Amino acid sequence: MPRFKTVRGMRDLLPSDAQKLRRLESLAREISELYSYEEVITPLVEHYALMDKSGTEIKTRMYTFEDLGGRRVVLRPEFTASIARLMATTLRNQPKPVRLFSTGTLYRYDEPQFGRYREFWQSNFEIIGSERPEADVEILSLTNQLMKEIGLRNYWLKIGHVGLLRGLLSTEGMSAAEQNTIMQLLDKKLVHEAIKQAESTVSTRGISALKQLLQAKGDSSSKFFKQVEKPLKGYKNSLNALNNLERIITLCKEGGIKFRMSIEPGFARGLEYYTGMIFEVLTPELEISLGGGGRYDRLIEHFGGEATPAVGVAHGLDRIALALDKQESHLKQNKKVVAVIPINAKVIPQAINLTQRLREEGIHVMMEIMGRRVSTAIQDASRRKIAYALILGPDELEKGKISLRDMKRREQKLVDYQTVHKTLTEELTN
Ligand code: HAM
Q1: Which CA distances in Å does 73 have to 61, 67, 68, 221, 332?
Q2: How many Å lie between the centroid of ligand 1 and the Cα of residue 260?
Q3: Which of 54, 126, 280, 289 to mutate to test the pocket of ligand 1 (most atoms within 8 A of CB)?
């Protein structure tokens, strides 16, 4: 018999992990409703060419294959390209802004390691059609609210703007392709190599400005923005980018959106389509980001649509679950479960009837279906962390009664068989 294992980099999510992931997904969906985002479900398989603008780096890490019709296809490595495709085609005439939410699995042929999987989950939010800073603020705000609702502690947002570096490098005469190489190196924290690479094109003054950008790190104060402004004198596009970033941060502050942030003008992200503000969610427990996003005003037109500004974010649900585990913080479960245990075969019909009645009332029930003795069934319920057990015995039932056992307190009382759903609802909401 061959021993079957999952394919390298792929995971089975066992009940407790699957439950956590679904809970995170449903919290993200609640946020999407709160912020009026509509869900779209796009295919897992997309054309290879769709990933053209996501960047050379990600293209080397895609699951690429030819389908039986000879088409070159990929397993989607992210949602944004699919959303841009939709906006350039089917949804092109949709009144703007369009707010879209997606969730599901993505595929990247990364080297498997802690927090880096070949199949992983994201919740993804995109606003399409607004070039205004209010849209950037909304993406930051919903990310902040989601992290709070999840119960994540000590997180901060690292924020930058690709226009700062690109403005400088293009004024210095560097081609977009060369700029992409520099951005990739910076994304991998290879700062020394990035500067070395830039030295072949960029003037001494430009290199000095670049170094200052790469070292700068600060808070939302206007003092910090003034400090970043100095070396950028003469680099008009970089100064515009800095103004835009300052406006976004000021709107967050004045709008009362509170989160810890670190503004890093030399920050770059791996994806190449970004044109404006970029950010990542970080925690001290993980060295890698829990989420990331930014503005991409040129991607939709690349797919043949009209020039359409857009900004979005994706949250890495697997990594958020890892960070929560490390923080020993548990996601609140939405429902408690009740066990229904018949003492003997005679009362099974009443047990089934009661189970049905409780489920119709929205109470989660697990019925004893192994014919085990009551003590064994109670032990099993306790192992499964069940909140209450309802025990049905023929003698009590004749008097219209059953036993309600509080599993945690190990206390038992007789309750009315007919109205037990009311008693239980009260107990469960206390
Ligand atoms: P990204 O930074 O490539 O951005 O991915 C977003 C998040 O997905 C990461 O911060 C991380 O939490 C999670 N993630 C990425 N790769 C892996 C992996 N191999 N294993 C586990 N988790 C992973 C994007 O995907 C952009 N599409 C975000 C965006 C939306 N930008 C604008 N709109």
Answers
A1: 13, 7, 11, 47, 40
A2: 21
A3: 289
Please tell me the distance from the alpha carbon of residue 395 to that of residue 392, in angstroms, as a whole number: 9
43/76 Cα distance (integer angstroms): 8
> How is residue 66 written in tokens?
């030819």
* Axis crossing angle, helix 317-326 with helix 15-34, rounded to the nearest 10: 110
Q: pLDDT by residue (tens digit) across 26-67?
A: 999 999 999 999 999 999 999 999 988 888 888 899 999 999
pTM above 0.70, yes or no: yes
- Closest CA to ligand 1's atom 16: 116
- Lookup: tokens for 119: 């199949």
3-state secondary structure 294-317: EECCCHHHHCCCCCCCEEEEEEEH
Could you count the other beta carbons within 10 Å of the beta carbon of residue 81? 26
Give me the mean pLDDT over the 335-361 stretch. 94
Return the residue whose CA atom lies nearest to atom 21 of ligand 1. Answer: 116
pLDDT digits (tens, 9 = 90+) for 189-219: 999 999 999 999 999 999 999 999 999 999 9
Q: How remote is the CA of residue 116 from the centroid of ligand 1, in Å?
A: 10
Partner residues linked to 156 by β-bridges: 282
